[in-house]
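Exercise 7. Predict the joint structure of the components listed below.
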Amino acid sequence: MNRPLIPHLIGLYPLVMMCLFFLGPLAFMVVVSFYERDPLGFYNVAFVWDNYAKFFSSFYYTLSMRSLWSASLGAVLVVLLAFPAMYIIVDMSRRWQLFWVILLLSLMCLSEVVIGFAWVILMSESAGIPRFLGWLGLWEDPRSLSPSFGAMLIGLVSLGFSLVALMFYPQMAGRDRSIEEAALTLGTPPARVFTKVILPNFRPAIISSTVTMFVYFLGVFVMPTMLGRPQDWNMTVIITDKAVGDANMPLGAALSVIMLVFTLLIIGTLLAASRKRGKA
Amino acid sequence: MSRLSLDQIEMTFGTFQALKGVSLEIASGEFICLLGGSGCGKTTLLRIIAGLATQSSGALMLEGTDLSSIPCHRRSVGMVFQSLALFPHLNVAQNIAYGLEVRGVAKNIRLRKAEDLLDTVGLSGLGDRAVSALSGGQRQRVAIARALAIEPALFLMDEPFSALDAGLREHLQIEVKKLQQKLGVTTIFVTHDQNEAMSIADRIVILNEGRIEQAGTPTEVYARPATRFVAEFMGTNNVFGAEFAGGEVVMDGVTLGKPSEAMAKLTGRHVMAVRPEYLQLSKPTDASTGLVGTVNFVRLLGASIETEVSVGDRSFVHTMISDRAPEFAVGDRAAIDFDLAHAWVIPS
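Solution:
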């Protein structure tokens, strides 16, 4: 029996795209991670575990923990700030909702570098917030607030805020408000409706946006380098440093593979835990 | 003393006045239907009673206590919403037990109560199910059980069956009525469906443009409509103006028949309403002196046959039991006789 070919070709399209833009480069990176570094060139074809072995040192362990910590903290902070903000926005009139959505979309158009520079200036001793606080008399000895871990976190939050807020928008705007009213009629005090009904209802969206931001912040490069101190740098900065600065492509590739595996493990664990709790 | 008393309730949204001086007394254990078309103010009134909206003016008393100063969460009202508003993150039993949990009732007691209510609404054994796994009718029952779990002072329902198919709707109407009679809870049910209101209410309150047009038993509002709006809104009715003089009722120069004793005392022009079942159609003869018109529509409604007859600019609707084939077809001429003993003069 002749089965039509076109549906099969259409079905192949996502696979081709995945191979072309993800699996292909990933496979190449995995292969390179087993090569030897050539100090005079790029790499020599080989099969060695040395690049992976280097990961098991206190330096890379500390670096990994730091990357995970800054990405987790940034993700939690940005969701904590964006969720209530969008909850307030969706209760505004259509005109104001449109204003805020356009503003958030505009913020997404700004590049990471522009946002980073803006914060560098704002946190500088000579022109930014410290000087202003000093002028007000609230800070006797104003000093630059960046680079610091706090400055880097602020940069991460600025970077992810509009994205997370817009991720919440469709679900929040379309939510059935009578669920909140039902909670009131059943005796829930207004202050507890948020924690008893709204937050649990949005738990899947909160988890997925936190995971998305976590993955996103693991891979940021500009904010840690512009606003963070060297001890605040994440694995992405070090991978770039090794691969580009030291021309050690095999080590950079091995660290990238390890980061990828770690990320997948963390996401898998989070999603499994969330599913298990949902069923309970 | 009545259980719930509404006195001159007014509600304004900007320049739009949704409720205009609504006053109503509702007795304990009564089943009231707020009936009206879209935008008549019935849901607004229900929300004011629930405490989800605050009236612009007027008083709301429950057994002598002013409800206006009591916030929604302290009013002890069980409400079933049009969208049902079940909590998607809780299973069936947790949904039903939610109000008890908020009140600090121990877990074993509230879950036992949820089981009892599931049994009452015919959903035994479904407590562990996710609400998303239930059918439309089952979800309705869960919403009803959840509202009743808190043993509310008032049980409010906002068009809860509007999204259901006709058969299921009818089935649930009967169930709700039986449940209400069994529990004796004062119930206010909002609907735009006249048949639904007629079939379940002890008393129907018909609202139009923010005002109460009439409040009465289903028989009263059906047989003795207080206004033309009620006469036309409550099922099909033949509403027309006629002259009363010398003990006769005359319309467009045609004498309609001999009126009742009370009707014969009237003089001047009045609006009359005659239900389709009290019209008689016959084949016109040369001797016919009454109203004669042309049949322009005939339809079978299961138990009855409806025939529409045009006389000049007016249309009259006639119904008869469908125990025989329709006697008239579209285009036929038909003579119309009125049973004036069953006609109703709408108070002016």
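Discussion. The first strand of chain B starts at residue 4 and ends at 13.
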